Queue: 2 jobs
Job 1
Amino acid sequence: MNEHVAGEPLVKYRNIGKRFGATEVLSDINFDIYPGEKVAMIGPSGSGKTTLARMLMTLEKPSKGTIEVGGELLWHRNVNGRLMEANASHLRKVRGQIGMVFQHFNLFPHMTILRNIMEAQVHVLGRTKQEAKEQAVKLLEKVGLADKCNAYPAQLSGGQQQRVAMARALVMKPKIMLFDEVTSALDPELVGEVLEVIREIAEEEEMAMLLITHEMAFARDIADRVVFMAEGQIIEQGPPKQIFNQPKHQRTMNFLSRFSAQSQSV
Amino acid sequence: MWSWDFAISILPQLLQAMIVTIEATIVGFVIAALLGLLWTLCKRSPFTPLRIAVNAFVEFIKSTPLLVQLYFIFFVFPAFGVSLSPFLAGVLGLGLHYSTYLTEVFRTGIDAIPKGQWEAGSALNFSRVKIWTQIIMPQAIPPIIPMLGNYFIVMFKETPLLSAISLVEMVQTAQMIGSASFRYVEAFTDVGIIFLVLSYPASLIVGVINKRIKQRFGQSI
Ligand SMILES: Nc1ncnc2c1ncn2[C@@H]1O[C@H](COP(=O)(O)OP(=O)(O)O)[C@@H](O)[C@H]1O
Ligand SMILES: [Mg+2]
């Protein structure tokens, strides 16, 4: 797969902490993602994986620390050596490099599938409708839904909706795309088709991916690196083989063994 | 004694006045909708002083009688150099008063939009304005159309209040016919019937729209 792990990181989390009220959910995270790298993130629920991704998507603000994307600060601006809070236009500029696919798809229910994928191209990238439509159709072909152009999201299965959501994010050509448990809201029989599309994207696209998932076999299969999180900290990370076969930490072992016990019992 | 001839003979004059009533309702409703939307947006502003000021203003308008507000606009504004015709003062008062109810309706519609819609818009890097115009409002408005329709009918039935500031609408016209002929019964019966003939089908239409919207969106508010 992609061996782009040399050079400057695309994303740098530095000393990132997050608290909701009195609860600290992330403490002092330092974490890099390289251009084109496919990173899988695993860990028990409540360990802060979603929060970490949402801070990169600018949906949640860090309580401390900085995030850099493509060499630029995301939440801050450097004014004469002092860190100032970034304004809305700065956030918009940097955010353009980031895309996200959500657990619950979040398609726009009042638009057809085609318009779901065209809308941001027209209103954000300033593409013409014609251009946007061509791109949208191309992406719909890629996710195998070209025949659903004129359907509304409610007429599609969960798996189909999630594939549309991926096309919608992909058409913006982000440098990094975040996948937050994108199959965990789906009926079991629909998981496969969505994973298949992610696999294709991972193989064909240059962009970096951060894949938060409970699909261990899948993570092992497509990731360049696996990150294990627990209780707001990165416990360990490494190549999939190492994490799954020779985890260094007791916590990782416990998590993985509980997981395989669970999947065996199903 | 009830006179059919008289009741029919005054109909043209009353129907003429009905046009004023309908015009006042429509213009008043448009003002109420625009102001109501404005209040709703202000109440969601990140700028706290604006939020507090708008909340206080809306509560103030809501908790004072429409009649007092009409008198104030019509009789007190001229002291500050703003003289409005009865029609303008009337639709302004009516619109302002009902904007404080419509802002609640808009809020209900907007609050019903799942958080994920805002987040998807933001993740696709839509501007704040585009999130409102392309994503939120097109979803927030259809389910509240029946509620807006009900307020339209309520406002229609409130227009006789405008006769208090000398707007010659239907009730004022009936009053004048009555005092000239001493035939109040026919005049006000006609007015009642005209209101019924307009309001009742309107509320049926709102009911039908409500049903359609329920089918289309699965639920209404
Ligand atoms: N908006 C929020 N307000 C309060 N607590 C939150 C909020 N979002 C997440 N949390 C808490 O932060 C912790 C980490 O959550 P999350 O990032 O969703 O973990 P994960 O994705 O690994 O399951 C959890 O304990 C969760 O309850
Ligand atoms: Mg999560």
Note: The first strand of chain A starts at residue 11 and ends at 20.
Job 2
Amino acid sequence: MTTLEIEGLTVKRGRSEVLHQVDLVVREGECVCLVGSNGAGKTSLIEGVLGLLPTKAKTLSFQGESLLGVRPWDRVRRGLVVVPQNRDLFAGMTVEENLRLGAIAAGDRTTADTVLAEIYELFPRLAERAEQLAGTLSGGERSMLAIGRGLMSRPKMLVFDEPSLGLAPLVVTSIMRTIARINERGTTVLLVEQNVHQAFALASRAYVLENGVIAGEGPTDELADSELMRRGYLGSAATGGVVTT
Amino acid sequence: MSTVLQLASTGLLQGLIYSLIGIGLYLVFTVMRVVNFAHGYFVLIGMYGVLSLEPKGFFPFLGAVVVAALGGALVGYLVQRLLLESGLAKGGHSQLVITLSLGIAIQYLFQVLHPEPFETIPNPYPFEAFTSSGVTISAPRMAAGVLSLVLVLAVSFLVYRTRIGTIIRGCSESLNGAIHVGINVRRVYRLTFALGCGLAAVAGGLLLPIQPVSPALGLELTIKAFIVVVIGGAGSLWGTVAAGVLLGLAEALGSLYAPGTFATALVYGLFFLVILVRPQGLVVRAASRIKPAETSTKVGVG
Ligand SMILES: Nc1ncnc2c1ncn2[C@@H]1O[C@H](COP(=O)(O)OP(=O)(O)O)[C@@H](O)[C@H]1O
Ligand SMILES: [Mg+2]
């Protein structure tokens, strides 16, 4: 079954169109990555899918139901949760308050404590800092908190927008391992990254975004060898390591 | 000495009303980033609301205050829903123009409905005044101050201790974050604006037996509410409450040293000075400094 189906998606930022006729499919249980250099339109794609930016699309559906005309927060309530690039945490509130707000989309209040315990188990660091204000966390901790907050509603699908951005290599590895675990436990994942090396190691399929259009797609092992990845932006933009064959 | 005590008590009680008016403006500002220039006119709605209900006696008066508060909240809800939502989505200065024009419209409406200035109602409370150690406080003033304090505490309980309060604070911390956790921010905005306007109207109802109402009072009250929020640091509910009390005290004690209207001018001069020296306000919440600048609102809540 397809979890997310995008066909002919066009996204505007202000007057300019930053995404043109994008097709993208993520099936249930998959871990798919979307790579592209800075400014390619990755974040715009996510914000379009969530309804934060004005879009046009032939199809935009989640679990077989159209998202067109559905308000962003209702898309979240349907189980489509984004861990945003700039984290969008509640800076003046504690780690635990942030996490508890994450459970809002689930509607059911009784399971919140159980899920909270799970998240503290996944990120022991967050448990240690439960009473600390989110605005005082380090970059890695903020990334963890954003992921934890996203998990609180037990989403069907998590979209990660550059979870490794600005983090030290060791922290990146740990975050990536956590994303793999989340996917193994049954959450469908769309991983958006500039860090091709890390993303390809995790995902089974990939899409390459260039200047607002999909320039290539396929299984990660095939794509890694492709001409597109060898020439293209990889040489210039691969920050976390060049894909080797 | 007893004069000072008398003025300080009156100032404190008056200040609590300013606190109540101020937190209404504070909530709308901190959650929605909207400066409601019509805020003082919602106090007018409360005052004229109670006036036109002509309550005779204590319980009818309380009932009238509740009705006026609900009326103010309803008008606020409709203003948000019908006027501001579309303007908010577009950004720019539309909310300034909308709330400013709204305030003027309310003023002219009351000028037509109530052409004579300085209308009031007789003391609705079952007692006249309290006297203790040389200080005499009239019943309406005492009651208005105490009830304002109770309402301020109730609002702080709502904001800091309840689920809906956590949601409201979440929206004020990060609009996008709120959307990402599935909060219907449009509904929260409507409720917050209604709450802010309702609080202003309640304050108006309580104020009426103390202060005769004229249509021109709206502007003065808007400015006072502004002063309270700005001096309070705009980052904390308690700062706003403290600033309200401070304004009340400054007004009352100012009259010790200068006659009537000049005292008022003196008070505003003083606050002007405070803003020059400490533009961030007197009370600044620690977290508001480390909070990264909120990026522009990406979603139209309209
Ligand atoms: N706030 C904005 N207003 C207008 N254009 C923007 C804004 N943010 C990004 N853009 C433009 O939109 C395009 C896509 O940006 P974005 O989606 O952030 O790319 P990515 O996430 O892949 O780095 C870029 O050309 C960028 O310059
Ligand atoms: Mg991006």
Note: The domain at 2-300 of chain B is CATH 1.10.3470 (ABC transporter involved in vitamin B12 uptake, BtuC).
